[in-house]
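Notebook, student rotation project (T.W.).
Task set for the rotation: take a protein with a known small-molecule partner, predict the structure of the complex, and write up what can be learned from the model alone. Partner molecule chosen: pyridoxal-5'-phosphate. Sequence and SMILES entered below by T.W., checked by me.
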Amino acid sequence: MALAVTNAPRFTAAEAMQMAVELYGMRAEAEPLPSERDQNFLLRTESGDRFVLKIANAGERREVLEYQNAAIQRLAERCGDLRFPRMAGPMVSSGGYLVRLFTWVEGTCMARAPRHSEEMLASLGRAVALIDRALAGFSHPAAQRTLHWDIRHADLAREHAHLLPEGRRRIIDAGFAAWEQVDWSALRRGVIHGDANDYNVLIDGDRVVSILDLGDSVETAVVCDLAIAIAYAMLGKPDPVAAARAMVEAYHGEYPLTEAEVDHLWTLAVARLCLSVCYSAHHALTLPENDYLGVTDAPAWTLLERLSEFPEGWPRDVFRRACGFSRGRGAAAIVASRRDHLGASLSLSYRQPLHITHGWRQRLFSTAGRGYLDCVNNVAHVGHSHPRVAEAAATQMRALNTNTRYLHEHLAEYIERLTATLPAPLSVAYLVCSGSEANELALRLARAHTGRDQVIVVDTAYHGNTNALVDLSPYKFNGPGGRGKPAHVHVVPTPDPYRGGFRGPQDVREAAQRAGAVAAFFCESALSCAGQVILPPGYLRDAFDAVREAGGVCVADEVQTGFGRAGSHFWMFETQDAVPDIVTMGKPIGNGHPLGAVVTTREIAQSFANGMEYFNTFGGNPVSCAAGLAVLDVIRDEGLQENARDTGAYLLGRLQELTGRHAILGDVRGRGLFLGIEFVRDRGTREPAAAEASAAVEAMKERGVLLSTDGPLHNVIKIKPPLVFSRSDADLLVRELEEVLA
Ligand SMILES: Cc1ncc(COP(=O)(O)O)c(C=O)c1O
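Predicted structure of the complex:
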């Protein structure tokens, strides 16, 4: 191959003009066009007609060019929807080079389009399909050649992989390893165009009118044509899989793919990119002066690095759905099914609900081929689909899953590890299946220990979905469908430093006096439903003192805030210089596996052990404990608490900068990776800007960033992403938000 490139003709424009006169009797101005192996000139005659003079590589066999000529002719005859060049004279040998003259094809080079719309990409997919259909059944002895750009022969490129640095090598090796698994016998064979890169594609508006240059045409697996087109089309795209999807769907609509072809398509497209960067590495060494060869190298690396972060199986799933090979249903059918068969008390996120099939780290991936930065999912604490958590749970599920009446080391290890994260008095754990179960049990513990009934809660709090917890949740009992505050519940004002209207622990002291026989004070260590409120310093410490003086116990609801999210501490209550009597946990604890926990003091646990057993069928089962252990391991091994501290502080600083430029941002607050942005119409009156906040959330979704609103006034954007959230994610979030606000 290097030989072919080095044998590229090197004529000047003047020599090309001379050639046109001598060989074709044509007087014309010549202008060089880009090419890798050959040399092409645009000829402009005096009458304004345009032609292309193609001077083939000296190493090119006549038979190969004859084959290409025949293929072009076939396309021109059978592919009426597209324009193709026609031979404007015979193929002639001149000075050891074979020269051809073609008519010029009108159109704009797609590479020069400022943007590739979905319509344009679909048109490209359709054009490749038209070509493949027109070439079906066409054969020529020269098409059987071994071409280095043919994905079938990616092993030729692989020989140069050793030239790549370690990190990049890993990406390439994975691409080639998948390529090795391709079952070529399952793929239809045929002659393909083989080079639908956007420099070869001509457009008219959003419509593709031609794909030029059959120099890489070869007989191989037909689906390689689409794979090559996709590999190029994905370069530089914000959502490469969505771009590919548009092409695949259109191709399939014109010239149906087989199921096997669809299943191999992604592997082949990635292999083509791998092949391309391997040759670039080789050329950088052997032909450093040939710029054309490295044209796609930098964007190809950017793309390959991004693709390597996509969840395995996601692009294939997207393509299968686009071609109707998936058993999965479309969004509309799922919405209809939910409407018909799911209790209606559950709303969907976003005006156009998202159909998500895959998650990876801090990103979610949709059936439409789009990736989203997930800034709200605090359940996928160590990252969506973390392999260590998935593996731990799956391995245990294959071995055993039972209730906790048998001995199992996972349970023993887990409760030891979990209690070790807490201050000494908190040493006895109960394992349950959700945050609600945890708070429900906490209430029972408090009542059993104190022999009392009354409970103090914070206004706008939410503690869970059971009967008893709806009673403890002003967010629910004062909200739509709520039945108001029950007599045994006492509500203190939200200690919200931005909106004020509270007196701090004094409110709790007075509530305790009002309550008389107070059993418990329930409080989140930072308030989520109240609108991502960071408690005033020492609020919990002093409130806990007041409750204890009144004979009650203090419950810290860490369902949203625990496990390192605070950054500076593992538990958010620690930032308050407070030690609760009971801590409840949920959401992040199992990274999505339904697990919850209550940890309390030995004394309280003793009071609860009054003869009535606490049995929980699923709570603490070996699978849950395996997941929980893996979560603790990952938080430690990946330094996620430290990341929450550093990235959280960075993000808070960047968001606070925005408040200087956008008056609608009344307050930006946070601790670690638990942040809130409060929207107001007027900074003086603090009139809430709920509609604006939710419009911003919708606009951010369109830009690929997932957020949501919270707070009693629905005007706070909450940010509580998986703890693997990075600085560059923070930059992306701030950049997009700034544009949306502008
Ligand atoms: C602070 C708080 N406590 C408890 C719960 C209840 O947890 P679950 O939904 O797992 O029952 C939630 C759920 O949103 C919560 O936010």
